[in-house]
Amino acid sequence: MDFKNILVSSKESISFITIIRPQQLNALNKATIAELSAAFDHLEKSTVCRAIIVTGSGEKAFVAGADIKEFAKFNSEQGKKLSAEGQKILFNKIANFTKPIIAAVNGFALGGGLELAMACHLRVASENARMGLPEVSLGLIPGYGGTQRLPQLIGKSKAFEMVLTGEMIDAKTALHYGLVNQVVHPSDLLNTATELAKKIIKNSPMALSSAIKALNANYEDGSNGFAEEIRLFGESFGTTDFTEGTTAFLEKRKANF
Fold first, then answer.
1. Which residues are catalytic?
2. Residue-level pLDDT at 183
3. Which residues are paired to 108 by β-bridges?
């Protein structure tokens, strides 16, 4: 697929999505969000892709926020539509994706950029990463799930502090808060994310998909996470991956998923 604002590449079973708007510090505009959505749709259908790593071009920024020029003149209805459509076509799609997604956070991850990273299932950050939700300084609040996913990841008190001050935190603080899973030297970022993806994809694709659904169910309104776990656990017994996994264990060999 040909894109203007992103680059999609693959190595073995791992796909890489790189946002390439360096002059705008990889800021998200409507076109980039649409391209990201299309890329995820394509990779979800792929029989080769087992995991995805999302990053930004260069070392300055993962995604430095949304493209403010696009919505500076919006009214209330346009703003509501911008948030709803963005969440529907990209951010919620990522959070509920059937394959594991890792954000490799290089440099600034601000506003919509941090929201993009938080929608991913795991986050690896470079030591020079800076993260924040500065929307209140613009007279706004986070609109792509930030007010919901941030407290899920770091707790309500720290989320209030980050959102209400609008200040950035460094990678070390993000690791302490539980916002990111690992912090590494910038030169090791993609390799570390790739090694993490390799560890994950050794496991059953069907089980990974079900695990993502079960973990997310705990945070969905009207969903009983325990009931969803029971349902998905039971369904696992009817899969070919279960047959292969248990057979391999009993035969003392590695499973071939």
1. 115, 135
2. 98
3. 61, 130
pTM (two decimals): 0.96
- Band (pLDDT 50/70/90 cuts) for residue 2 is confident
Half-sphere exposure of 104 (CA within 13 A, CB side): 28
Count how many residues are written for the chain.
257
Question: Which one-letter amino acid corresponds to residue 135?
Answer: E
Q: Of 65, 73, 55, whose CA–CA distance to 134 is shortest?
A: 65
Are the CB atoms for 32 and 47 separated by under 8 Å? no
Pull the structure tokens for residue 51.
């995991």
Work out the burial of residue 170: count CB atoms within 10 Å of its CB; fewer than 13 is exposed, 13-18 middle, 19 or more buried: middle
Token pair for 107: 């440099």
**Are residues 129 and 170 in contact, defined by beta-carbon separation less than 8 angstroms?**
yes
* Bridge partners, residue 170, by sequence: 130
Class of the 6-201 domain? alpha beta
Q: Within 13 Å of residue 127, how many CA atoms lie on the same side as its CB?
A: 5
Per-residue pLDDT of 188-197, as tens digits, reads 999 999 999 9
Question: What distances in angstroms separate CA 18 from CA 24, 146, 231, one per listed residue?
Answer: 14, 21, 36
- What is d(CA 38, CA 158) in angstroms, rounded to the nearest whole number? 34
User: Nearest to residue 256, comparing CAs of 213, 201, 211, 210?
Assistant: 201
Characterize the bridge pairing of strands 169-170 and 130-132.
antiparallel
Record the tokens describing residue 227, joined without a space.
């009931």
Is residue 67 within 8 A of residue 28, CB to CB? The reply is yes
Domain range summary for the chain, segments of one domain joined by +: 6-201, 205-250
